[in-house]
Every structure is written in C-alpha cells, then in structure tokens.
Write a structure and sequence with these properties.
Length: about 425
C-alpha cells in the first residue's frame, strides 16, 4: 500500500490507495484506485475524493454459486488471479481489500434510539453514543451486521435533522437502517480471500455498492430503486433523501435464463449463453416466428445444427425475466419503500444488458426504468464501463459515504483482526481519518 497522506497536509482528507474486490457468481473483479481529495465542487454530491483506477483484473468466477462460495479452492484460485492481474497493472502489492456481500439472506430492519443531551450541544461522542445504541439492537445470533446506517436524526421533537453536530437540545434521537446477513456465507467469503494472503477491510452489501455507482444525485435525493442483475443473484436497493434505506437480494440472475434455455432447447450451457447474448430478448418481435436460429443439440456430433424459430427462445427468456421482475416488484411493495421510490428504477449489473429488459421492467414494475452504468470514476478501461462493473465501482465510492456508519463491537471479522498495528491497521486508520 502506498500512503500519500500526511505530508504537511493540513486538511483531514488525504490521498491513499484503495483496493476493492467483487466476488460474483459469473466474474471476480479486482480494482486498485488512487483516491485524491477533490478541490473543485464539480463532483457528484457527497463524494469527497476523485477516483482514478490504476489497476484492474477480472476472471471468470469459480467456486461461487448464487453469490455463495461453494468451493474454497476454486474461489481462492479465481480471486488470486484477478488480484494478481490488478496488482501487476497498478505496480503495487495489495494486502487488504473492501469486498461486497450478496448472499446470506440480506435483511433490512429499522431501529430507533434516543439519548439524553441535557441541553448541551451534540458532539462527536454523543453521535457515536446514539449510533451505538441503535446498532446494539441488531446483534442477533448467527446474523452479522453488514451496515448500520443513520437514516435521519431528531432533536427533541424535530425530525429530519441531517447532521446534528453542534446543535443544541435535550434528546438526540436516530433512526437506523441496519442490514444483516447470515454469518456463515460471510465467513466463507472471507476465508477464500484470507487463503490468498489478503485480509478483508470492510464488507459492503452489493445492493448498496451498486446504487452508489449507478444512481445520480437527483435519484438519490428524490428516492429511487437500483436493481443489480448479476449472474447468480439479483439485488435491490432503495435510496431516499441521499440515504440507503432498504436492501434485499434474491438468488435468481442471468445464469438462470441461460440454464432455462439449455434445458428448453437441450443444448450445452456454453451454447445457451452464446445464444442468449447474441439473440436473446425479453421482447417478442414481429418477425420472431420467421427468424430461425441454429442450435447444436447436446451430445449430437452431427454436422447439421437444428433450426428453431426465435420465438421459442424468446418465450423461455421472457418467462424467467417476468418471474424475476414480478418477484422484485412484490419485494419492493412489501418493503414499505414503494412510495419512496416513486417512478424511478435503475437497472444495472451484467444481466441487465439483455435486449428488451428495460421495456419488460417498465411493464411489470410500472415505473420509469433506465440502464445505469458506473459513474464518476476515471481510468476505467472501455470494457469496464458497462453495467456489469457497477458493484465493483460502488465499492470504490463507498468509503466516502461511510463516515457516519457505526460498526457495533461484534463488527465484521475484518475489523476484528486490525489490532496488529501492521499495514492493515494503517489502511483502517487511513479510512477512518480520511472519511
């Protein structure tokens, strides 16, 4: 890690190098970026640093199914390869990373807590105390807290206080959004990273990261949902008044469309994936019955591929896509944040590139839908500017947003190991000092 900060730098914000890792069901992606404090106000709101990607490595994912590590050796191998590639490109060695977490039955809950101020000004310690009180309620057996975020503060009877520092009152209250996940998948993900001699600095929920990367300021402010469609999982996040207020994940993704096609057309997974990318669509076209697509049946070495009408393929794709979107619509309505989202939904993730998906989503979700790409990061190669890289880019943005986040004592295992005062400790220190 190269530390650029602290050289007579009067401001508390410093430069540093940040490494992030997105371990997905279809790809593993590692990015190394330099973060420099920004002077101009032209940035997206809430971003304190300019991000320049200096190294990137990505690999076909192995040993991960529906966002869960199912084979440690293979997952470790894929992680090692992508981190090595990013290190070589950046010209530095990496020892700790920020990682995203998709699986483990993510669950959002709301908690409130109040502390007595006794008419004094609210200072850092008071804010820490009330955040701690809110976070404590969320520690349940076999669940780990991934995020505990203040959604809004209140002073006495006044709600909707954005930043209570320095304000006077008798009672300081906070409404918390706490996102928890199952402990076992989190530990296994961490284990597969530790086996590559790397440590986990922080875990960030995938829906949070994707939303940070793909939503623009107005959407964050007025309320919007971000749906990240990956290979093995689809996650959904809701932002309102600039805050992440709800997250959810389902274990259905683009791979399921491929699987349905392979079964329905009795062809191999590779052939089905190719067909999906080349000809797949969630929209029936007028010429679909006349359009023929050639397919190589499984186990058939004959030279003559089968010809099938494209409409057969579209029906298979559409059935799965509609089912997924209906599930997301129900989850969104059940969350109680359907109104906060209003009419704004942003689709991102690799599987969002399927032809006709925005139209299908408009029809089923009954909202305006756009495809979101990662925003506001310099140095991304052309191939990484698409929606498939939103989660990884979001991890680079995350530390700038994490200043208010409170980590309860139990914390993420990554933070449990930072008592050594080694390099990892320095990175944690930098993250704490700079954001």
């Amino acid at each position: 890690m190269s530390w650029l900060g602290g050289h007579g730098d009067a401001s508390s914000r410093r430069s540093g190098t940040l490494t992030v890792l997105d371990v997905g069901s279809s790809k593993v992606c590692c990015m190394v970026a330099k973060l420099k404090p920004s002077d101009d106000g032209k940035l997206l709101r809430g971003r304190s640093h300019r991000i320049q990607v200096i190294g990137i490595g990505h690999q076909k994912s192995q040993g991960v199914k529906s966002g869960v590590v199912v084979d440690l050796d293979r997952a470790e191998h894929a992680i090692r390869l992508s981190v090595d590639a990013a290190e070589r490109m950046a010209g530095l060695t990496v020892d700790s990373l920020i990682v995203n977490m998709t699986a483990g039955r993510l669950k959002s809950e709301a908690f409130s807590a109040t502390i007595n101020l006794g008419g004094h000004e609210a200072d850092e310690a008071d804010i820490k105390r009330v955040l701690g009180a809110g976070a404590k309620q969320a520690l349940k057996a076999e669940r780990e807290v991934i995020h505990s975020l203040p959604v809004g503060f209140s002073l006495d009877a006044e709600r909707g206080v954005r930043n209570p520092r320095g304000m006077v009152g008798d009672a300081l209250g906070v409404d918390m959004h706490v996102l928890t996940g199952d402990a076992a998948p989190m530990r296994n993900l961490e284990l597969s990273i530790n086996r590559s001699h790397l440590s986990v600095e922080r875990m960030v929920a995938t829906p949070y990261a994707s939303g940070l990367a793909a939503l623009v300021d107005d959407e964050l402010e007025m309320g919007a949902a971000c749906i990240d469609m990956g290979g093995g999982t689809t996650t959904i996040s809701v932002f309102s008044e600039g805050k992440f207020v709800h997250g959810d994940a389902i274990a259905i993704g683009g791979n399921h469309v491929t699987l349905d096609m392979a079964k329905g057309l009795s062809t191999s997974l590779d052939a089905a994936e190719r067909l999906k990318v080349m000809h797949g669509s969630a929209l029936p076209g007028s010429a679909d019955d006349r359009d023929l697509v050639s397919i190589q049946p499984i186990g058939d070495d004959g030279d003559v591929p089968l010809q099938i009408p494209r409409s057969v393929m579209t029906r298979i794709v559409r059935a799965r896509i509609d089912e997924t979107l209906e599930l997301l619509r129900d989850r969104l309505n059940k969350s109680g944040y359907g109104n906060a989202v209003g009419k704004r939904v942003v689709l991102t993730g690799g599987a969002s590139q399927l032809a006709g998906l925005p139209e299908a989503a408009r029809r089923i979700l009954g909202r305006n839908v756009r495809i979101g790409r990662p925003l506001g990061v310099a140095g991304l190669p052309e191939a990484a500017k698409g929606p498939a890289f939103s989660a990884a880019v979001g991890l680079l943005i995350y530390p700038q947003m994490a200043s208010f986040e409170s980590h309860p004592a139990k914390g993420i295992s990554g933070l449990r190991m930072t008592g050594t005062g080694g390099k990892l400790h320095r990175m944690s220190q930098w993250l704490r000092d700079s954001f």
